[in-house]
Give the backbone structure.
Amino acid sequence: MKNNARSLVIQQLREAKVKEKLAAMENDASLHTVKTTFNANSELYPDNQMPFRDKHYDYLLKHPGVDPDQYLANLRLMLRRSI
């Protein structure tokens, strides 16, 4: 049952094109994104550096009740560079 719920969340994130939107945010010069953050999982991240898009995608996977579009909109607001 748990795998089925995870599959539904993954499908919702695909339909919302979350990975593409996170990649676009990474490349947007008007946003102050940190390219990587520390992650202790050496199997997935041998250099212990988790990319920006993986960090936020993982958050959305672990919190299925969060609306991905709202999350990304709030993230854009928080990361906007001031002029």
The CA atoms of residues 26 and 65 lie 24 Å apart. The first helix runs from residue 2 to 15. The two ends are 48 Å apart (CA to CA).
